[in-house]
Each structure stands twice: as C-alpha cells, then as structure tokens.
Specification:
Keywords: DNA-binding, Transcription, Transcription regulation
Helix content: 40-55%
Distance between the termini: 90 Å
GO cellular component, one term: cytosol
Strand content: 5-15%
Pfam family, one: HTH_18
Shape: elongated
InterPro entries: AraC-type_N, Homeodomain-like_sf, HTH_AraC
Number of helices: 10
Number of domains: 2
Largest sheet: 5 strands, mixed
Strand order of the largest sheet: 1-2-5-3-4
Organism: Nocardia panacis
Radius of gyration: 26 Å
Length: 254
Amino acid sequence: MEPDLPESRSGAEKLTAALQRAADSLFDFEIAVGTEEIALTLAVPCPNPALLPRLSEQACCLTIAVASWLFGPKAEPERIEFAYPPPAHAGSCAEFFCCPVRFDAQATSVHFHKTALTLPSAGRVRRSRIDQPRTDIAPEVEQVLRDRIWEPTTQAAVAKRLMMSERTLHRRLAEGGQRFGEIRDRVRLERANVLLRTSSLSISAIAGEVGFTDAREFRRAYLRWTGSTPSAARAASPWRPEGPEDHLPPTGAH
C-alpha cells in the first residue's frame, strides 16, 4: 500500500527538520510534495558565484546522506537539478549521485519518489547529535549590533555578518523565543542609558550614537521602551550631565 500525501509530507518535513539542524546556517531547505514525487529545494547563500557549484553539490550530498540515514538505503533520489550552467565535471555528476542530473534549472533541488521518505527511521534522529538543541543565536546578534550600534542595522545586514540567510536568522531567533526588533531595541536602550547617565552628549547626538537618524524618532522609541523621555532619564541620573539640548530657551524667547 502506497503512502498518501499527508504521510509523504510528514516524512519530507522530518527530513527537512533534520537537514536544517545538520546544516545549521549553511543552507535553507523547502519541500514540495506532489502526487508522485517529493522535491526538496535548496537555497545556498553564496556571495561568490565561483563557489556556488561546490556548495550546491555539498548540500545535495548532505540531503542524500541524511535521507538515507533516516529512511534507509531505499531513500535514493530520482534526479537532481542545479541552478547553474554545467561545470567542467558535469559529465561525472550522474555517476557520482547515482541518478540523472540536470543543469540550468530554475532552482537547485533533490527529487525523491513519494514512497522514499516514508520508511521507518527507528527514531535514529532523536538519538543523534543533530537533534540536540543548538546554541542560542541571540548573543551573537547582540554582539553584531553592539559593534555597529551607530548604524541603523537591519536583520538582513546582521544575517550577512553571521554568514546566514535572513530567513535562517529569523528561524533561529524564533526557536529561542526571540525577535530581531526586540533584541535591537534592548541593545539600543542599554547604550542610550549609559550615554544619558554618563555623558554630556545632546539628545540628538545620543540618538545618532544608537542608530537613529531622527532625534524625535529616538525620543518616541525611548518613551515606548521605558515609559519616560530621554531628558527625564538624564535628570534622574545621580550625575545629571547636561547636554546642549537639555536647556533650550522657551518658545518665543530672545
């Protein structure tokens, strides 16, 4: 009896989860379950086009190895497609992967028959290292933000610094119950409080130091974070440094 689509999807999702743990931040995987086959599309972040074939082939090797590990030797691909022109070694790829290989495809993907990923796995993945919790990525994100705190850093920019895709970073943070915006706000508030309490920089200058291009935007953000204004926080400091914007003349004064 052949498996139905839900069973095929369940096996594909199990493989995808194992691959994401095994590959960590190197590759991203998406599944598409059809009536006769299961396709795993691989996203390979690679700023250097010359390295794309090598990284893509490594990702496909990993996919096949993990599939065989989880579902047994029958979990062999029916074909592999690569999203780049044939490399110099294209002639040996079919022999190496033991299946037809096509180049110049729309995306790099590994295709399995719908029955290939529904074989018993005997729970091996649960006992494997790849199923263990990974290190929380939030401290690394915080460090990147602190290093360039004066810049209006985006999630995409941080992901690039950490050598992963933005989607992978979002997923890793979500696994730890974190959001990028919340981490950035926390780092900005931490630095803003230090400057408000220990420096005589103006509010506008402090806004720039923590990544805001508009002092009014910084004031609104600080009020949202703390329920108080930057000026009030500075006034409450034991040292109470006075910045040049803290004593502006009243409107209409000459």
